[in-house]
């Protein structure tokens, strides 16, 4: 049952690119005592998490958020002045009441780079809209030496859900089942991903 207590990851990803360091998502922010009591989060402070990778918050050149819910943009204010990349429609939605925590989205020194759809941010770094969880959700596609990696954020809650949709995609092995899949999934699969990572699941999807 969906209302049973469960433990869930909240993950961010550091990307080392020749043109700079990119951080996808910045962790769970504080959303009040009631939310804290409900989720009971156990946080790894962002500077500590980055330190494990040998970098500091000052080293980050670009922040990308898959979307602007408080559990994905919690550390954004630390990066005042740095570009924060999101879809224009997502930033618009974030202004609605009860969508997110306002002070995590609108803070001194905020510097949004708003996208209207797909865009290549750096050579081999592609942002692809993947609406579903929210209309302005986006995923990050990385062309690596050993193949394409997709950081899919919360496009799916877990790798198993992604695998199910990949099987049922229009050109997937179960396409004849005519199951409903996200319209953008064919675009991601056409990029020939070798691995797909998620925001709330440490499991990794790989093609069969």
What does this 3D model show about the protein?
By secondary structure, this protein is α/β, with parallel strands linked by helices. It has a domain at about 15-140: Metallo-beta-lactamase, Chain A. Helices cover about 20% and strands about 25% of the residues. It is built from six helices and ten strands. A five-stranded mixed beta sheet has the order 1-2-3-4-5. The chain is globular, with a radius of gyration of 17 Å. The mean pLDDT is about 95.
Helix run count: 6
What is the CATH topology of the domain at 13-142? Metallo-beta-lactamase, Chain A
- Quote the distance from N terminus to C terminus: 29 Å
Q: Please give the order of strands in the largest beta sheet.
A: 1-2-3-4-5
Bin the strand percentage. 15-25%
Structural class: alpha/beta
């Amino acid at each position: 049952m969906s209302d049973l207590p469960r433990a869930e990851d909240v993950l961010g990803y550091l990307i080392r690119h020749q043109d700079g360091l990119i951080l996808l998502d910045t962790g769970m922010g504080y959303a009040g005592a009631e939310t804290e009591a409900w989720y009971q989060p156990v946080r790894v402070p962002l500077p500590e998490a980055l330190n494990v990778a040998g970098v500091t918050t000052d080293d980050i050149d670009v922040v990308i958020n898959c979307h602007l819910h408080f559990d994905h943009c919690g550390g954004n204010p630390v990066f005042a002045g740095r570009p924060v990349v999101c879809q224009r429609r997502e930033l618009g939605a974030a202004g609605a009441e009860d969508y997110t925590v306002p002070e995590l989205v609108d803070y001194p020194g905020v510097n949004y780079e708003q996208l209207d759809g797909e865009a290549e941010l750096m050579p081999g770094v592609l942002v692809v809209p993947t609406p579903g969880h929210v209309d302005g959700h986006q995923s990050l596609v990385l062309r690596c030496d050993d193949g394409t990696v997709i950081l899919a954020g919360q496009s799916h809650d877990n790798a198993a859900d992604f695998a199910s949709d990949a099987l049922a995609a229009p050109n997937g092995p179960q396409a004849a089942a005519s199951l409903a899949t996200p319209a953008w999934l064919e675009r991601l699969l056409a990029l020939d991903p070798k691995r797909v990572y998620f925001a709330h699941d440490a499991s990794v999807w790989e093609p069969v």
